[in-house]
Amino acid sequence: MIAPPRIGVAAVHSKASESMPRPDRHKLTVSCLLGLFAFLCLAPFSAMAQAVDPLPSWNDGKAKQSIIKFVEDVTREGSPDFVPKEQRIATFDNDGTLWIEQPMYVQMVFAIDRLRELLPMHPEWRDQQPFKAALDGDFKTLLKDGQGSRNLQTIVGVTHAGMTPEEFEQIVKNWLATAKHPRFHRPYTELVYQPMLEVLAYFRANGFKTFIVSGGGIEFVRAFADQTYGVPTDQVIGSSIVTKFERRDGLPRLFRFPDVNFVDDGPGKPVGIEQHVGRRPIAAFGNSDGDLQMLQWTTESGGRRLGVIVHHTDAVREYAYDKDSLVGHLDLALEAAKLDSWTVVDMKTDWKVIFPFEMKGEASPKP
Amino acid sequence: MIAPPRIGVAAVHSKASESMPRPDRHKLTVSCLLGLFAFLCLAPFSAMAQAVDPLPSWNDGKAKQSIIKFVEDVTREGSPDFVPKEQRIATFDNDGTLWIEQPMYVQMVFAIDRLRELLPMHPEWRDQQPFKAALDGDFKTLLKDGQGSRNLQTIVGVTHAGMTPEEFEQIVKNWLATAKHPRFHRPYTELVYQPMLEVLAYFRANGFKTFIVSGGGIEFVRAFADQTYGVPTDQVIGSSIVTKFERRDGLPRLFRFPDVNFVDDGPGKPVGIEQHVGRRPIAAFGNSDGDLQMLQWTTESGGRRLGVIVHHTDAVREYAYDKDSLVGHLDLALEAAKLDSWTVVDMKTDWKVIFPFEMKGEASPKP
């Protein structure tokens, strides 16, 4: 087992780890002997590095131990639990697992801001559901039992379609550059969980490919995943709307249509992983009932597996919620965690810091 | 520009290049100074390596030059055509571009063998189309204008569904281990194009991510892509049938259903690439009209781009076919190649060898 680099405030290190420049690697291939020499020289440094804590923002406890023990077991050559590199697939939910999702899913806030922007062309939305509820910030009506999913799809349809994927990416990037969280007054990309950035980097340093598996829109998440998490666009899996190829003004392009193509949530997550990765993960991280089937499919497959539920228990530094919350609803998956021996992370006690800015000594605003 | 490793008979080297063990990389990160030292030591070797021909199985000529010039232009720092690593995406069709597709698509041969295996349970297939045509090897009827696609889908439906993805992968692997090409009497995985294996390795050595974008079934291609091409399962894009999550006998699993989910051919190829990669490629390789839109979308986007059509012109060492062939039909894309300045590879004159076995001095059987 090799210890990962120490993690700074942002995920810059983890990005470098994912996509180390290939020419540099190649220079080593050119001269095997020198490479072997370098390896032998560096081995003692590597042994030293193991003493560095791979998860410095985690308090010692069952959760931290279970993650480290898992990585050590599947990467130690000769271990009965050893897993070859090409099978080291780890999947991570995004909303509530890697970044904040309260008081409302970030993509929904984006969609509502887009609704407001487009409102002059659609004044009828003021009196028409689900647009009215969205514009009024009436999340209870918006996410009402059994209608939340359809309402969100309707709003995504009118705000996320009608452009090329490149244009949509730019719209998201522009929004992320200016929008701020109502309580933390910071860009959403700063409201990612420092302990989880460390997990991402730790897994990658140990030969894992890390995939984001989001119920959110695949192209929304791709707009920031590389810079924020060190996860390249092709390792992001998510929900999508219909995209078609066409020629317009003599040029080929893709165009986004307001119909659902794929819902990457609940039982859709294992299907999305199969479509994109073609392998069953050996580790999966989630925080809500939307992650239930992903964790079941990952862990109930024989062999050494890791399932992790991030439980939001810290109302002071972040939010405390589970089975009574419409956003990030966690009920069945918490029951399943007992049955399947998943690791349940108690954010309040397991995490020394929640957000990267706390490492600079900046405090969270009071709830 | 860094020269790639020399290519042996199989694609083992390219595989190593794609997935260089991360712990080894990491050891270098641990000690930057030693790394810098090693870099300085190795620089002269790297310069030497540039003299090594990256495409040794290609004859000197326009095609080879255009490929090398493109890679040099987009990887040279400070060049007006420089492309950052994360945008270096290259896509490759499979049938007829990376491996043999005559006298019939390999996956179709597999499907027909499966039909024969399942025939005792479905004796009605003997008199029922398209099964009868498939069982009789009557490819003309099978691929008849306007019906080929539907016929293939029907046959894929009954031969590729009704099991888990893991079970299907094993069925394909077992078949590939025993099936032999009718003319070459070798396993199909030996009938890959040596010059294209070199292109894959050359691109990867220069920081490209290489994706297979096949009209064939995504899980059929994944069963051999890693070992044969050094392309991991998550970098394979292809057509797919519906897969659903379910619990059976108390365990979660995915199950394959006989309905089309996605057709990754023609205008579907750019859509499939967007779904999986989330970026427009800067280089694309194909050989038939099914690759037309992928090459247009790749090259007609401004900036330095590479489009390549592999033209099958060698009836002695392989097959010669284009617009009159039902398999690998090439007509519109050959016209478009002129308009869009794509590189057209003449297999007869541009390739020193076609298959890896020729490098061991073994001759091709006569046509």
UniProtKB/TrEMBL annotation, chains A, B:
Pfam families: HAD (PF12710). This is Haloacid dehalogenase. Coiled coil: none annotated. Gene3D superfamilies: HAD superfamily/HAD-like. The lineage of its organism: Bacteria, Pseudomonadati, Pseudomonadota, Alphaproteobacteria, Hyphomicrobiales. It comes from the Bacteria. Signal peptide: none annotated.
